[in-house]
């Protein structure tokens, strides 16, 4: 069984939840919910509704009544929420961070007696975290270090973590991924992949959630890509700031892999930090600060480590001659 916490008290399950919240599953959920901290987590959570339909779960990040939630949970014209006792709470949408697909909402009153979530500071491959959904909490396993993905909607690079999903039929699109009061992020995508061995989640009792599982031959495994804590922690810090601005580092250029190694600049935006530093289209970047750059993904990974408004040393080749420039890191505007 994969359900590790009961459904929300005071809230009747939706039709889509009925198969998940059957008596055998609910009995197991009740038995293990305290082991994953459900009783302490739920006062810090809200179920978000848009146009009267529950879409996802929001987590408290500030006692002023600020919550982070998947942007896909707040689509619609009318937004409100339910607390863990099933009481309606008025909320308003303040901000959407386009890069992480996380949104900031605020309830109409401050919050007392509830602990706020703090951004996770590190990733451990093989660590178990929990996807918080309106149906309860489901185990997922972190199965990679930080990777670089590409947003299909906006063609932007995004740092992500690959995760193995125990309950693939759930709608993880609006989940929050947590471990205790550590917030890891939201979901970027879900897909089914061919696996060469048994699923990575180690407890054999919890493996029947995988599709077509086989311990002796390749099978299909449902995986997801969660926004990296590197990105999520920056978003939370920005949402907590007085102006609610999330400062993603940006130089103002687009690159591609160079055949000779490095990242070749194909676009340098007018007035950008890159242009002010003297970079041009055709330059091949091979180092950003302390990070070597062998391709466009390493360029993106190095850029996400930077801090806006700080100096960045850039090593690059122009017509075969190695050069160096210094840029002041800018901020990506959504």
Main beta sheet, described? 8 strands, mixed
Beta-strand percent range: 35-45%
Order of helices and strands: HHEEEEEEEEEEEEEEHEEEHEEHEEE
CATH class of the largest domain: Mainly Beta
What spatial form do the alpha-carbon principal axes imply?
Answer: elongated
Low-pLDDT parts are: 1-32, 196-218
Question: Which class of secondary structure composition applies to the elements?
Answer: mainly beta
The helicity comes to 10-25%
As laid out across the biggest beta sheet, the strand order is 7-12-11-8-9-10-14-13
Quick check: average pLDDT?
80
Helix tally equals 5
In terms of quaternary structure, the protein is single chain
Q: What integer value in Å does the Rg equal?
A: 22 Å
**How many domain regions?**
3
CATH fold title of the largest domain: Thrombin, subunit H
DSSP summary, beta strand count: 22
Distance between the amino and carboxyl termini: 41 Å
At CATH level 2, the architecture of the largest domain is Beta Barrel
């Amino acid at each position: 069984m994969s359900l590790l916490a009961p459904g929300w008290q005071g809230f009747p399950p939706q039709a889509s939840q009925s198969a998940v919240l059957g008596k055998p599953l609910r009995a197991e959920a009740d038995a293990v919910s305290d082991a994953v901290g459900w009783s302490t987590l739920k006062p810090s959570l809200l179920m978000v509704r848009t146009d009267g339909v529950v879409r996802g779960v929001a987590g408290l990040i500030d006692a002023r009544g600020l919550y982070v939630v998947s942007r896909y949970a707040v689509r619609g014209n009318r937004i409100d929420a339910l607390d863990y006792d099933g009481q309606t709470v008025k909320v308003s949408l303040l901000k959407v961070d386009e890069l992480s697909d996380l949104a900031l909402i605020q309830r109409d009153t401050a919050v007392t007696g509830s602990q706020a979530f703090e951004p996770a500071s590190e990733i451990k491959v093989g660590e178990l975290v929990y996807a918080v959904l309106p149906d309860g909490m489901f185990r997922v396993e972190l199965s990679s270090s930080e990777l670089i993905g590409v947003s299909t909607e906006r063609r932007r690079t995004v740092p992500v973590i690959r995760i193995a999903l125990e309950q693939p039929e759930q709608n993880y699109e609006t989940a929050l991924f947590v471990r205790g009061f550590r917030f890891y992020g939201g979901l970027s995508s879900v897909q089914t992949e061919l696996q060469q061995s048994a699923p990575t989640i180690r407890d054999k009792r919890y493996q029947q959630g995988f599709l077509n599982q086989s311990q002796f031959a390749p099978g299909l495994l449902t995986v997801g890509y969660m926004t990296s804590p590197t990105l999520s922690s920056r978003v939370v810090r920005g949402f907590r700031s007085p102006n609610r601005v999330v400062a993603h580092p940006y130089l103002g250029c687009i690159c591609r892999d160079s055949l000779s190694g490095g990242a070749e600049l194909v676009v340098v935006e007018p007035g950008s930090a890159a242009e002010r530093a003297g970079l041009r289209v055709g330059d091949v970047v091979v180092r950003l600060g302390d990070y070597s750059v062998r391709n466009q993904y390493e360029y993106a990974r190095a850029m996400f480590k930077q801090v806006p408004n700080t100096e960045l040393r850039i090593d690059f080749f122009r017509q075969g001659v190695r050069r160096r420039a210094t840029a002041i890191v800018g901020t990506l505007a959504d």
